[in-house]
Amino acid sequence: MKELRIHGRGGQGSVTAAEILAVAAFRDGKFSQAFPAFGAERRGAPVMAFLRIGDEPIKIRSQVYEPDYVMVQDATLIGIVDFMKGLKEDGILIINTPKSPDELGLDGNFRVRTINATVIAKEIIGRPIVNTTMMGAFAAVTGEVSLNSVIDVVKERFSGEVGEKNARAIRRAYDLMAKGESS
Amino acid sequence: MEVVEGSYAVAHAVKCCRPHVISAYPITPQTHIVENLAQFVADGELECEFVPVDSEHSAMSVALGASAVGARAYSASTSQGLALMWEVLYNVSGMRLPVVMTAVNRALSAPLSIWNDQQDTVGARDSGWIQIYVEDIQEAHDALIQAYRIAESREVMLPAMICMDGFILTHTYEPVVLAEQEETDDFLPPYDPEYYLTVERPLSFGCFAEPDKFMEFRYMQHEAMERARFKIKEVADEFERAFGRYYGDLIQGYNLDGAQIVLVTFGSIIGTMKEIVKHEKDVGILKIRSYRPFPVKEVREALKDARVVAVVEKDFSAGFEGALFSDVKAALYNHVSDLKLLGFVLGLGGRDIPPEDISKIIERSRVVMDQGLKEEWEFIGLRGEIL
Amino acid sequence: MKLRIGAIADPGTSIVNRTGGWRSEKPLIDHSLCIRCFNCILYCPDSAVKYSEKEGIYFDYDFCKGCGICANECSGRAIYMVMEEK
């Protein structure tokens, strides 16, 4: 079983990201579970969401304390939230920032991948909503969900032009990260 | 199977039961259930009278009135909302109306908390409602369909609460098999009460009962609860035949064969416990599915070979101990000897229950097994540094 | 009678239960003073004041509890209370 913790701010779609990835993973033939760090929803406040993906039905209902992956949707959380807490050795941190992993200078026995998701989202979707772009990055970096499933689920969730734009943003992020580049 | 939110799964099950009247007042974390149902009605997917009300007291009163005219009625609430329904809960059970509600578990104020524990429904334990506590989203969905069959059977005629942990089950997305309308129709016949209000045959429900009759009405409720024991079992078996899913009858055991330590609990914590217990050879879990009627004989039978029993719950009675702990001890007294019982209270007001908390409880139980009983009950996960 | 579940009872039990026996005073009427305002009929809590063309205002003593509201409300002071003789 693999565990992901998503950090973001209220209104950035962190909970939706966990949910869509759960549906996508299930469509790939795996079991999945997604849930938020339950709180009173406030736009802009730091929030967390969790995702578990496994080959067996998932029974455990605790929050995720030792994630395999951490995804940070908003670089302004650096210094505010301890998003590296519990991240496994050899785990992966995926963070939305214009900086390179070296520039971030994060200490730990985990890999860091950076992506400038805000720029991609603004350019393709027209709004700085990064959750779908980050999903594309997650699919490329971890291989836990397939690109096609993520795109299919997003298109079902957001119909028409909005769905198409989000799908393009996902694909752009996927291609960039699959090539090993930081954007 | 599809991945859906817990609240959606519950609303879907309600829809398949074809209620005539739904009345509920939105309150976190029950809100998504009611929103989904309102959407079904607005979209024409569910033909039903959806009655918006000014409070939970009114919501349950509407359900009461609807049930009395022979309608299948549904409501849902949690915490403060359930507390505000209190007097109507007793009216519904006293009038023997088979209203079914989803009681989402949330802490009671004060301090103000919107998060999960089980104080609210445990407090409603004595209200004359059948109480079934569910372990996961699939069971929350399935138990709802079972509940109407149990509640509406002529030999029972009691209201039923399906108790599900707020947020932990209502707001989680996981794979669920959603019932088909047709298979639900085959399983659940239309409500056919013996007595109902109609202008052709006027009746009074819940009449004035003087001291020469009141006790008898209460005794009849007790007898109905006794019959509900068998009905819950029967319906669980029939549900398994129809849908292929089973969660136990009044209880369900895991790893009980040869278990020296048994964890007794109800609700969603069982999922986390199962993950821990699969690595522990001599530790089993006893899930209390039906809290009322209480599975007295089943608990005795399931625990007769254990050496230490740890009762784990998210509620407590200030000035004594956890309510489930008291009930389990009472059921065993006079019947099972050489058994040490420990009570643990955790997860109050949404405190997350990490696997280590369960491991700690097992450790404590081992110490008692080796060295005998010292502390009978305790809080787990207390933050000593801020006390 | 065996009890029904839910304290469910047939209606109309007040017809069977003749509450007139509770009375210590009873109303009488002086028809020459009655102006047919019917306040007595409107105010009677037990619907025990009746009227017919032939008899004018009369009382159903099976259900009149003798509260005296009719006498109190009577516009023409036609209704008055007397001690019940038993």
Automatic annotation (TrEMBL), chain A:
Oxidoreductase among keywords: yes
Gene3D superfamilies reported in the protein's UniProt record: Pyruvate-ferredoxin oxidoreductase, PFOR, domain III (3.40.920.10)
Coiled coil, from the record: none
EC number, as in UniProt: 1.2.7.1
GO molecular function, one term: pyruvate synthase activity
Pfam families: POR
Catalysed reactions listed for this entry: 2 oxidized [2Fe-2S]-[ferredoxin] + pyruvate + CoA = 2 reduced [2Fe-2S]-[ferredoxin] + acetyl-CoA + CO2 + H(+)
Protein name as catalogued: pyruvate synthase
Species for this entry: Candidatus Syntropharchaeum butanivorans
TrEMBL record, chain B:
GO MF assignments: oxidoreductase activity
A Pfam family it matches: POR_N
Residue ranges annotated for the Pyruvate flavodoxin/ferredoxin oxidoreductase pyrimidine binding domain, each copy included: 13-235
SUPFAM superfamilies the record matches: Thiamin diphosphate-binding fold (THDP-binding), TK C-terminal domain-like
Superkingdom, natural source: Archaea
Keyword 4Fe-4S: no
Domain Pyruvate:ferredoxin oxidoreductase core: 259-358
GO BP terms, alphabetized: organic acid metabolic process; response to oxidative stress; sulfur compound biosynthetic process
Organism from which the protein derives: Candidatus Syntropharchaeum butanivorans
Gene3D superfamilies linked: 3.40.50.920, 3.40.50.970
UniProt keyword list: Oxidoreductase, Pyruvate
Organism lineage: Archaea, Methanobacteriati, Methanobacteriota, Stenosarchaea group, Methanomicrobia
Quaternary state and interactors: Heterotetramer of one alpha, one beta, one delta and one gamma chain.
Protein name, UniProt field: 2-ketoisovalerate ferredoxin oxidoreductase subunit alpha
UniProtKB/TrEMBL annotation, chain C:
SUPFAM superfamilies in UniProt: 4Fe-4S ferredoxins
Keyword Signal: no
Family annotation (Pfam families): Fer4_21
UniProt key word Glycosyltransferase: no
Keywords: 4Fe-4S, Electron transport, Iron, Iron-sulfur, Metal-binding, Pyruvate, Repeat, Transport
Listed InterPro entries: 4Fe4S_Fe-S-bd (IPR017896), PorD_KorD (IPR011898)
Domain 4Fe-4S ferredoxin-type: 25-54, 55-84
Lineage: superkingdom: Archaea
Any one Gene Ontology molecular-function term assigned to this protein's record: oxidoreductase activity, acting on the aldehyde or oxo group of donors, iron-sulfur protein as acceptor
Cofactor entry: [4Fe-4S] cluster
Quaternary structure and partners: Heterotetramer of one alpha, one beta, one delta and one gamma chain.
PANTHER family named in the record: PYRUVATE SYNTHASE SUBUNIT PORD
NCBIfam families (UniProt xref): PorD_KorD
Name of this chain's protein: 4Fe-4S dicluster domain-containing protein
